[in-house]
Amino acid sequence: MFDSERHFMQETDLDERLKRDIPDPPPEEIIHQVTPWRKAMRQVLFGSAFASITLHAYCLDYILPAVGMILSILGFRTLRKENKWFRTCFLLTAVQAVYLFVHLILNTTILQEAGNTSLEWWVLVVGKAALAFSTLYGLWRGLRAVQKKAGLPPRAGSALALLAWNVVLYVIGVLCPDVMILAGVMIVAYILIIRSLYKLSKELDHAGYTIETAPVKVTDRAAAIGLTAVLLIGCVCGYAFGGSYRMDWTPLPEAEHQGATDIETHLLDLGFPKDVLDDLQSEEVLACKDALQVISQTYDAKAGYGIIDTLSKDSSDPNASSTAASLRITTVAVQLPGERAEWRMIHHFQWLDKPRFYGTEAIRIRTSYNMENWDYIGPASGRLLYTKNGTSYTALYHFLGDQAYTSSDMVLGETTSTDLFAAFSLPNDGENQRGYIAYTVRSKPIASILNTLIDYNHQKSLLQYPAVTAMENCQTDVWSRAYAFKLINDQFLLHPDDAYPPIVDKADSKETA
User: Residue 452 in contact with residue 331, Cβ under 8 Å?
Assistant: First the structure.
């Protein structure tokens, strides 16, 4: 009897010690917070919310979808072993992440400059929508399967409502992108849907449902850091290698103007600037044969941080100083013989110092308001030049020709124009970067001023997102990207007295003699 009492007392002491030494279990709300189901569903819901938010400020319309995609991948990665629908959602989300990351990286380059054709655009839009809709359909089916497994009625209408919401959003975005009256309704509906999905997740928690998590060798934090690092490294490579045109530079041939010496001498006698004449191709010199007169004008511009900063300098003033200038724009008009006034226009630019070239450059030429009173005789011609280690190199423009585009203005609204554009990139490992554009204009019977506007768009910063070329910037709102581009403009006016000199009839001149 004493043995049984002693044994009972030993068991009692053991129970007391266990109660004293083992800590109390954590509160139930803490247990819910660390359950894989709760965490995974929060990641999926927050990921969907971030992917749907569009805030056009500080690049949040690109950052938030990237964050949302990473959260969705982490959430479905945890759920992928629970049922086939969540596993499908994980695979579809991974494909969407690849598409999104490639798109974000390409935005740091000018590779998308050419744009997509209408068919390609529709293929991308439909493909992206199909992936998103399929993922949401899989989420709906996956939630129904989980509810059935947990002994709850299989109803996940909020997930189906989220799918319908995205379908409506895509339809509005494609067919009626400017309709803003439904924005408030769509936002309220989205908040209610996400709230309903969150309540559904809590309902499964309270039902005591636990999931079978997939074994992973990489933690969520390490996976998120790895995905972010891949995106950042891709963007750095895009900025470093995808921001410039590929130019075909070749050594400048020697004695290029051989056989045109007499024409050169005649042009110099008429006042043609020698530095501009030396840069012309032999074909350009021959095109100015029998020139009647030459009118030239030079403008020096400072490459400061202002949007427009131009210093006027008349080429006829030999004492004018250009020590403060960075870019020199020279316009030369050569009158050619003919029944009507015909002029060979040459626009020449030259960097007087060694600025930093970060990507693309562009020149836009607008003459007499789209040749309202003048006939344009194309095509335009020209080339680029620079010097390195005493050797001159030359290349053709990446693009040179007429380009139609649509621009927006606060006063005039949307307008469509066609101007002469030149797009190019210049190297940083040389000096005396320069080039010219040449074309011919012929006057109409009514005498008018030849008004030519020359816009040089210089890229002064690498960090712009999404990246656009200088030519694209010329065609849009140049003021919105003043931090990345500098607009330098010049105007050349050819007055009627100069453009339409009196024509002496040969028969009358003989009789007078």
Answer: yes
